[in-house]
Amino acid sequence: MSRSDRQDLARAAAQHLQIQSAESQLSTEKNALTTIAGVALVLADNDRLNNGTAYETVVGDVLSDHDRSLAYNIDFAFFGLAELAASRAYNDSDRRNTAIANWNTIFKNSYISPAVAQSNVFPRNLTTDPACGMTLGGMVFEYDDQTNRAVWTRMMTPWIMLSAQLANITGDMTYLQPAETSIQFIQKYLLDLTVASPDFVAHTFDATSCEPSYGSSTTLDIAPLIEGLSIAANLTGNQNYTQLLAELISRAVLGWSNQEGVMTEGSVDLGKGYMVHALLEARRSNTANDTLNSLIDTFLTIQFNAVWNNASLGNNNYNVSWIGDSGPSSSFDRMGSIEALHTLNAATAIAPAPPDQEPVAHPSINVRAIIGAVVGGVAGIAMCAIGLLICLRRKRSGGSAYANGAMELTAPPRGQPGVLEPYVLTVSDIRHSATTKGNPYSRVTDSSAANGNETAGGSMSDGPTEPPRQAADGLARRLENLIDALATRRNGAVEESPPLYEPRTTGTTAGQVRPGP
Q1: In a shared domain, residues 477 and 389
Q2: pLDDT tens digits, one per residue of 335-353
Q3: 137 and 156 Cβ atoms separated by less than 8 Å
Q4: How many CB atoms lie within 10 A of CB 9?
Q5: Domain check: are 416 and 515 in the same one?
Q6: Whole-angstrom Cα distance, residue 75 to residue 53?
């Protein structure tokens, strides 16, 4: 699908979201301020992508009507991010200043500086053992309320994202230092990279005992961290950040996705949309890492096709679910439409240039490069690949990863979350996949959209089908070859060439290549 076709789909979705986002409609969502901030952010992003001002008025109205009545830090953070999106789209310094004011509210009332942590004398009547308290620099409380000592990952990560964006946009590194301190706090207490996805990120933290709570994390816990970390890595050149970023991205694309690689979360908190947004920013901030960007492009393309195939409710309205038949509906789904527009915006941003501006073809993901760049270390990739291979083999033999319990990597996962299996495909692989309705890759080769309005193509009423056996077998072969390559490298040997893969035959005659879009 061409860039202009994707752009038309995104514009149509944005126009419908704008129509449905008048104050009269948003007034029913006073208790869902993060959703309202999401409306402003994604519409401003669409304008910035198109170098336009079509939604400037509605974005301004949404922000002005709600940004003065915030009470929770998570709302200060997400409205700050929406204000920055508007500032960037419309070159509006007032919006940037409002974002700074929101940041200051969190910084002054809820952020624990390293100096305060070292003193072990805390606000909010927090008492803790010095061995714990002196390590709490960078922690941010969930609520502005000075009597509440709750600490939630979902609050800390948008704070990091807001701080990093302010540093990047203003050039003032005053905002970067708290972001880095909070990143270090999260790395120390809220990430456990010895366990399987998605259980590697904690959901809450008890500041009295220095104990995190795992087992109920969502994409919103990790997506803003990925975006903030990608900016911090770019600004500082810190290789530790770069390595952590690659590790988090590789885990994020596994953790909340099904075996086709499609994110499966429902409508809890716009997490899927922010994950797409974060991965796109990571791609922009780290342009030198072709391999990581190829992985991101692949994942974003899968989400785009899932939204197009499985989430359309008709009339440019989208369901929050991307994994099954949505069918027509006259009921507007605001959260679904916000998340879909994030995905359509991203699909436009990564689309190839028009033919007269066609760049050099983007290389497919290379096993050697994956080993060196996508994951922070050979052992990490090997564990992920082995885990996926075990899961696939269970599935192919009639078993289930879920029925057999959670898989172990280097330590038993907390709880029993199971391990979800995405397709690990190159962009070329996706383009050449079968065109079965319900398959998240099926429409990449379609040549047009219906004038930017409702999606064209096959009926949305057809239910999804299981991925072809050849696709699963092909993935297993790739993983087996990857494991062999990793084992060779871990033993100190150097291959003369990357491992070869058998060509896919799905939807084509063996050896025949299906043309791309």
Answers
A1: yes
A2: 999 999 999 999 999 998 7
A3: no
A4: 29
A5: yes
A6: 25
